[in-house]
Amino acid sequence: xxxxxxxxxxxxxxxxxxxxxxxxxxxxxxxxxxxxxxxxxxxxxxxxxxxxxxxxxxxxxxxxxxxxxxxxxxxxxxxxxxxxxxxxxxxxxxxxxxxxxxxxxxxxxxxxxxxxxxxxxxxxxxxxxxxxxxxxxxxxxxxxxxxxxxxxxxxxxxxxxxxxxxxxxxxxxxxxxxxxxxxxxxxxxxxxxxxxxxxxxxxxxxxxxxxxxxxxxxxxxxxxxxxxxxxxxxxxxxxxxxxxxxxxxxxxxxxxxxxxxxxxxxxxxxxxxxxxxxxxxxxxxxxxxxxxxxxxxxxxxxxxxxxxxxxxxxxxxxxxxxxxxxxxxxxxxxxxxxxxxx
Amino acid sequence: xxxxxxxxxxxxxxxxxxxxxxxxxxxxxxxxxxxxxxxxxxxxxxxxxxxxxxxxxxxxxxxxxxxxxxxxxxxxxxxxxxxxxxxxxxxxxxxxxxxxxxxxxxxxxxxxxxxxxxxxxxxxxxxxxxxxxxxxxxxxxxxxxxxxxxxxxxxxxxxxxxxxxxxxxxxxxxxxxxxxxxxxxxxxxxxxxxxxxxxxxxxxxxxxxxxxxxxxxxxxxxxxxxxxxxxxxxxxxxxxxxxxxxxxxxxxxxxxxxxxxxxxxxxxxxxxxxxxxxxxxxxxxxxxxxxxxxxxxxxxxxxxxxxxxxxxxxxxxxxxxxxxxxxxxxxxxxxxxxxxxxxxxxxxxxxxxxxxxxxxxxxxxxxxxxxxxxxxxxxxxxxxxxxxxxxxxxxxxxxxxxxxxxxxxxxxxxxxxxxxxxxxxxxxxxxxxxxxxxxxxxxxxxxxxx
Lengths: 342, 450
Description:
The complex is a heterodimer of chains A (342) and B (450). Chain A is mostly helical and 342 residues long. Chain A has one domain (2-52, 103-328). Chain A has 15 helices and 4 strands. Chain A has helices spanning 2-32, 39-57, 82-96, 98-101, 103-120, 130-152, 171-174, 186-208, 210-220, 222-227, 232-254, 264-279, 284-301, 304-309, 313-328, and strands at 60-69, 75-81, 168-170, 183-185. A two-stranded antiparallel ribbon of chain A has the order 1-2. In chain A, strands 3-4 form a two-stranded antiparallel ribbon. In chain A, strand 1 and strand 2 (75-81) form a beta hairpin. Chain B is of the alpha/beta class and 450 residues long. Chain B has 2 domains: 47-182 and 322-401, 3-Layer(aba) Sandwich (Rossmann fold); 185-318, 3-Layer(aba) Sandwich (Rossmann fold). Helices cover 38% and strands 18% of the residues of chain B. Chain B has 14 helices and 17 strands. Chain B has helices at residues 10-25, 28-31, 61-78, 116-128, 141-154, 184-199, 213-228, 247-254, 268-279, 301-307, 327-340, 346-365, 370-377, 427-430, and strands at 47-54, 104-111, 134-137, 157-160, 177-179, 204-210, 232-239, 260-264, 286-287, 290-291, 293-298, 315-318, 380-382, 390-392, 399-400, 403-408, 419-425. Chain B has a 7-stranded mixed β-sheet, sandwiched between helices. A 5-stranded parallel β-sheet of chain B has the order 2-1-3-4-5, sandwiched between helices. In chain B, strands 13-14-15 form a 3-stranded antiparallel β-sheet, with no helix packed on it. In chain B, helix 3 (61-78) runs parallel beside helix 12, helix 9 packs parallel to helix 10 (301-307) and helix 12 crosses helix 13 (370-377). The N and C termini of chain B lie far apart (49 Å). Chains A and B meet through helix 1, strand 4 and helix 12 of A and helix 8, helix 9, helix 10 and helix 11 of B.
């Protein structure tokens, strides 16, 4: 039972990341009809917003100690972060909380990136075949990847969670287990709560604002909304930028779990795309439900007891589910009738 | 009067077509410029070309970049530029700082992308098009084994870069291939006694293993040596290469009864699995009345930088570390540091050594002919390259030297000062017979490509 509970928790935080990326993917597909294979790169860009912000905060005053030399004979450098020199304890506090604080930096950056991507490239492919859209966005993802690699290198760059949430919680104690049987990192719980909050905010935005109502109307019948004199295209541009922000902040908060590197977006993209297909192309609740469902299934499939019966099942489980869904219900779990069915 | 002396007819066109077709169908490897001579790519001008095949893109691009820096430095030193680096401390004095056998060294580079097919393609290009006399580099055992096999078939020498699997000089050994880097067998032999002293004999280990040739090799060696000191292996779980999130593999460790987690991961996988294992509080746990421990058998400074603070206090092994204080290491660190502004990694060290060792062997053999160079390298005893007295064993083309057992440093003095050498395991303790069960193989015969 304890193992099942642990894998359920694992699946939830993994599912949270899948759901956040898939939410943006399906939002873009539902509004613009574009299959955006660069969406994983937006997740990665968000993560590197956190890295950049941290590097900025960590800019150092470099002085040399003439009495000491390095192993290759140059004077030993002494480095102190500017922020600690100028702001003392407050500077150290900001540095400690650099990951959550960098969300404030990531939001405008990702809005801008989303806006430039949509206006500069994606809009030219609205009326082109999905194959063209996939090719161009996949190409764009590779370009973004290579730019990041040339700037930050190929190795992962670790980002620390704030000290307050660095350890692990004894979750088992709540359920009456002995101490240390079910422990779970605090930051993963924070991530799960964060994912739920962002998903809730996106749904609330679409459900309870006039802007959201127009977008939903546009998703249902773009032509009629246009006939009412509403510039739906402009709203869809904003939707693209919002989807970029959702992916970006998901990436920011994921950095303490997975040290970011230039390829992390690609690792998540394929899985998230499967999530969208399983949930139903264009279905927001479908993307969220499928994200959590596949995250949990993937975790359970990794259990030694399961792998002893079905070796290698952890590698194929989500693709297996996708195949079954596509065979049995081509529009996905909550997809609109007609989408992906012909 | 006709200008055509022999009028075209059906027969002459067919004959010409057949000859042209045969010429085009001949693999370029048989028509390259060196084939008129005694061996493949025999240098005829004033230069000899080395082929540096390193990962310039992909997950190991940073290691590849460091390897390339070391190769460029080695070429400088062989050609008599710079301060000479480890040529000054190398016990063989055959090289005089004026190239090799009167020829200056030039080089071409290729990108392995850490993929076997891409690595073979770039090595083939360097041999066929660029006339490389020797191929060297790589940062993965899968790649090393694939390229070594290609070099054997083509008839050039392969000087392996960072490859740690037993198979490179074990079951996949080749007469044309040589490895300076240590292997998992040596890691097991060096690490186990240190682990015994640090953690005792009654331990229960849980292995997470990268699911490819190197991971299997390391898991096998570590299991063998830790079980010899009395440890039990609770489970050995294979994880997909590049899994990213290892949480679903780490959580079963919590209640497995294991009190040691052995991470048979390298590179990004090691950074991720170690970071996540620490996040799950494994290092704070007490199991079976003992403090839970994590072991990372193969360490690299570049990877340690990725793991950040999580590396502190964790045991592992390494081929070389820049903090060593022997004359060879000091000379190399000084030379590399002055050139690039930071100390070299173990990948840089092994590739620099391989370039120097190959150059020295050619000079001693008086030729670049692969089989003569092979003879010069086999059973060659040397010192002064940072690892103490070293033997390039003829039976399997594996270098035998001291192995470093290291620990993540608790109080680093700089961003490079991450590993603390806790023991230099003497060569005699890590030597094994070339026909031992886990490492036996057949070198085959040397190929000159002629």
